[in-house]
Amino acid sequence: MAIEGKTTDKANTRIRLGMVGGGSGAFIGGVHRMAARLDNRFDLVAGALSSTPEKSLASGRELGLDPERCYGSFEEMAEKEALREDGIKAVAIVTPNHVHYPAAKAFLERGIHVICDKPLTSNLEDAKKLKDVADKADALFILTHNYTGYPMVRHARELVETGALGNIRLVQMEYPQDWLAEPLEQTGAKQAVWRTDPAQSGVGGSTGDIGTHAYNLGCFISRLEADELAADVHTFVESRRLDDNAHVMLRFKPKDGKQSAKGLLWCSQVAVGHENGLKVRVYGDKAGIEWTQADPNYLWFTKLGEPKQLITRGGAGTGAAASRVTRIPSGHPEGYLEAFATIYTEAAHAIEARRTGSELDKAVTYPTVDDGVKGVAFVEACVASSERNGVWIKMKN
Prior knowledge:
This protein is α/β, with parallel strands linked by helices. Helices cover 34% and strands 20% of the residues. It is built from twelve helices and 14 strands. It has helices at residues 27-38, 53-62, 74-83, 100-108, 124-136, 151-161, 190-195, 198-201, 206-222, 320-323, 336-356, 369-387, and strands at residues 15-20, 42-48, 90-93, 113-116, 141-143, 168-176, 226-234, 245-252, 262-268, 279-284, 287-292, 298-303, 309-312, 393-394. The strands form two sheets. Strands 13-12-11-10-6-9-8-7-14 form a nine-stranded mixed beta sheet. It has a five-stranded parallel beta sheet with strand order 2-1-3-4-5, sandwiched between helices. Helix 5 (124-136) links the parallel strand 4 and strand 5 (141-143). Helix 6 (151-161) packs across helix 9 (206-222).
C-alpha cells in the first residue's frame, strides 16, 4: 500500500542529537533513543546521561558514545557542544521533572532545539519562565506527549476538525494503572522514588505523571481548552507524599459561540488490574468516538442512530492526518514506540524547515511549550481544588 506524505525521509541528513538523563536503568531514555532512530532522522552523539560524571561516562560508553562527549552535567554539555563545529543541533531532556526548566533553558539560550519529556516542569512558575525563554529563543521546543503521535488519534482529531461529530458536548479521559498500588518507592525502585518525591516531581503524583497525558490527549482530540475544573485528589497508599488517584470534572471554554463542553478525567496508579489503561471518548451532537491506547490501531466512530463503525489504521475510512504518520500496511500493528517516533519525526521536519528557511508543512503537528504550560496548570489547579474540598478553580495557563 502506498502511503502519501509518509513521515520517513532517509534522504535528509540526520540531526545530531544529545541527551540529558536517560542513563543506565532509566526506562524513558531508552524509549527516546529508539523513537529518535526509528525514522532515521537523528544520531545520538553526546550526552549528560546521569547525575555524576562517572555514571554519565559509563552510560555513554554502553551506548557507544565518544567518551569526550559524555559530560558530567547538562551545563557543561550545553556550553561545549554549542562551541563545536560538529556540535549537537537538538537535545532530548529525559530527567525527573525538576531538571526540565534549567536544562531546557541552558540549551535554548544557545540556539539548540529542545525535545523534552512531559510534564513541562515541576511547577507553574518554572513552566511560564520556560515558555518565555522558548518564545525568545532561536530554537524550537517540542514536548513529548507521545500519545498524540498515534495515527488513529490523528484521525480522531481530524473527525472533530471536519465537523463529523458536530458540536462537542462531552470529553471523557481516563488513565488507570496499578504499578504503585503498594509503596514501591520504599524499596528504592528508581522510577517510583522520583515520581513520588515532591522535590523532583512537583505537587502532582498521578496527576502530573499520567493525568497530564490524559488531559493533553483529550484537549488534542477535541480541540478544546479547559476553562475551570473541580477535583478530588487523593493518596491511598499510606506514607506516600503525592497523590496516586484523582477524579476531575472540567468545563471547557465555549467555542464558536457554542455551549460549553463538559469533561471528566480519572487518573490512578492504584487501580489494580490496569496496566496502562489510557482511553479517550469524545461525544458531539452528531456522533461519538472512542480510542483506547491498549488497542491503538482501532477507532470506534458512531453516528447518532446508526450502528457503531470500527475504523482501522491504514484501512478504509482513514483520512490524510492518519495516513501521513502511518508506516506499515493495515493489519500489521503499530504501537507505542512508533507513536513516540512520530513526535521525533515531526520535530525533525520542523528543525529541517527552520534550518533551510523553508515553509513548514501545515500538517506537521507536535506538542509545544504552550501545551506544557497548560499541563502544569492542570496539575496545580487539581491540587488547589482538592485542598478546598473540590471547589471550581479557574485555569491559570
